[in-house]
Request: fold
Amino acid sequence: MVPGMFESSGKKQHMQFFRKVALRKKLMPPRTGGVAYIPYIGDGDLAAELYSSYKIFGADLDPTRVKTASSRLKESNIKVYDCDLWPFLGIPDAFTLGDFDAYNMPYNSFKSFWINANKADHLTLFFTDGVRQSIIRTGTFKKPDGEILRNLDLKERRKAYNFYFKRYIYPWFEEYIKPYKVVKKSLYLRSSMIYWGAVIKK
Reply:
């Protein structure tokens, strides 16, 4: 499996869909419209629920799901593509929203977006992060900066698991997005999964 990519293979894409929707509504701007990038778009159900007023660019590895999402989201541009890479070179649009609803690691996709996309001065970003599962199960995980921590003992695993977002994700994110700054953020947990979002501004 490509890191961070949710493969369909008959699996359900969303757990507690209503909570994902609530998180996004909490942070999305009151105005409608804009330009959204949605990798791991799956069947497009989250996008159809929330982003129908946006100009949507999306991607997924599963051709069947891309076809379904495209049929649900008229005027969208959705490709069969590795979401760790950037599918839309040369797009002049300034993106106002990115929704990185990965099953595991969303940050490779986010970094490709950040490096390659034109971005508005005000952005709303969402992430689904399942990396803590690897921390507690194997004692090995990849940080968003690319460093891999290996062979953590039980005490180290617990510490990394409990402080994962505070120690490894949020400080990296704040530094990585400069000169943008976080003006608002929200987060919730479901078992080992972290669902979070941020509004950032230049």
In short: The domain at 17-135+181-201 is CATH 3.40.50.150 (Rossmann fold). Residues 1-11 have pLDDT under 50 and may be disordered.
